[in-house]
Write a structure and sequence with these properties.
This protein is mostly helical and 91 residues long. The chain is built from six helices and no strands. The radius of gyration is 13 Å and the shape is globular.
């Protein structure tokens, strides 16, 4: 998994193994073009900020804040991803 440490990858694999419904939800998310495009745009902007010298966590917070309303619009579709990332969902 791109941008994920070994420990994080192990935790994600364990979560998916214990919760197969998350894996199937993530597959459905992959087929949602609007959400997929949004996530790709967010990832690209985070990468650009990192290349400019911004720490990853700050870049992620800044970019996610920029797209807060779009993320909220897709809250239900993104819930499995947020659960997997340990963010507990979006409010």
């Amino acid at each position: 998994m791109k941008g994920v440490s070994g420990d994080q990858a192990e935790q994600i694999a364990k979560t998916l193994e214990e919760n197969p419904e998350i894996a199937s939800s993530l597959k459905a998310l992959e087929s949602n073009k609007e959400v997929k495009d949004l996530l790709e745009k967010i990832q690209k902007e985070i990468e650009e900020k990192k290349k400019a010298g911004m720490p990853e966590q700050y870049a992620a917070v800044q970019v996610m804040g920029k797209y807060k309303s779009e993320l909220a619009k897709h809250r239900d579709a993104l819930a499995p991803l947020m659960q997997l990332m340990g963010m507990g969902g979006m409010r």
